Amino acid sequence: MADKFSGVSGLPEDIAEVFRLDSRCAVVTGAASGLGRAIALGFAQFGADVACLDIDLEGAQRTSDMISGLGRESSAIQTDVRDWESVRASAADARELTGTVDVAVNRPVINRRKPVLGLAPEEFSEVLDVNLKGLFHCSKAFGELMLPNARGKIINMASMFGLVAMERQAAYAASKGAVVQLTRVLALKFAPHNVQVNALAPLFHYASRLADHGRRDVVRGGRPQGRAGAVWRGVGDSWPCRVPCAFRASSFVTGTTLLVDGGWTAP
Fold it and tell me: Per the residue annotation, which of 172, 190, 204, 239 is the catalytic one?
């Protein structure tokens, strides 16, 4: 729909609306905890109804309950991203929430932090099956729902380690580098259908996994801001970049990877 423009300011009369998600349905894969939960709640805060997908159904249900508490429609759907039929069925279930899928955040993620020579081939494959193949399944399933409507936003979760190297990250970095390239290819394919595809590349954010693996000192010592990102710092360090990728205001942004790293890659 064309925007109406004010003769005084030259801005669209509904300028605030292009930064809202009212009457939109967002799907977040990996919504059971951490960044996935923060993103799902961020969408709800901006007006979206949200379907929460995860292999951890209990965690997804807790996120869904939190969203319902904000007055939005929500559902929890168990999904195994490694299984194409599971993802396709989950996408259909998500569409049942409001009749459409307008935004899809694809955040399937696991890691096996080991030196290259200590990483078993099956462990390497395990990471790629979730982080890359699983994300491809999600992008394909939700893209198939968006293209006929000529509208949609797909946000893929990459990582800073898809762009730079670090020890003990062979499988993870390989999978996330591939996500960056897959995002570009999807953006080219979907652009004629008014579906934008972008990737986000965060560094560490404060969450339970960060504490478990003792990464805080690595983060503090390696970037200008001297801290990890905070999931719950005010509106969250991640929300201001993730949510706008879903706004109508970002409809000319596609095929890009946005770094959320506190300046790590700036030097």
Answer: 172
